[in-house]
Structures are given as C-alpha cells and as structure tokens.
Amino acid sequence: MTDTKEAQQYYGRLLGCCLDLADIATINGATKVHYFMESDPDGDSGAAVFEHADGSVFVVEEWQDYSGHGCQCGADVTGPYPNLDAAIRFGLTKTARRTLGVSLPEDVNN
Description:
35% of the residues lie in helices and 29% in strands. It is an alpha+beta fold. 35% of the residues are buried.
C-alpha cells in the first residue's frame, strides 16, 4: 500500500492537464492507495488503485510523452468497483497490471 499523501501529490500533478473535474472529484476522497506507479517521460504508462472509506475502489491509468505532464498526456479514471479484486480484474489493463506488479492467473500464460 502506498502513502495517500504521495498519491494526492500525484493526482495534483495530473489535475493541471490530464484529469477533468469529475475525475478529480472521484479520486479526491481516497483513504487508501493500494497500488501506485507514476508514468515517466520515456513513455512508460502509470497507474494507481484508490479506495474510498465506503470500500469502493477506483483505477487511474495515465501517460505522458517526453515533454512531461502538461503538454502531451492523458489520464482515465474508472470505477467504482465493489472491491480491490474487481478493480484489478476489470479496471486495470494487462499493461497496467504489469506496471503495478500485479497479475491475474490468465496473465501468466499470455
């Protein structure tokens, strides 16, 4: 689990360019951060899995180009998912799962 303050700084950086107000409102109430890896300007995508106090879970996937956030970048927030397992299975792409170091049984053979 990642420090919530670190994740708040992360999505604060995304606010200026990649996330719209609805996305920010969705992840603003996060009380836990289960997984977190910020993208880098070399083209590696980033992802995070947030949980709210009510147990609902949200996923953020984001990217940036060589110029960094604020120029060419994007982010998407999906959820709510009823629990962490559902967020991993249905909210994260295979690439995001690999980035975060989590996998599903079907990822192992593909």
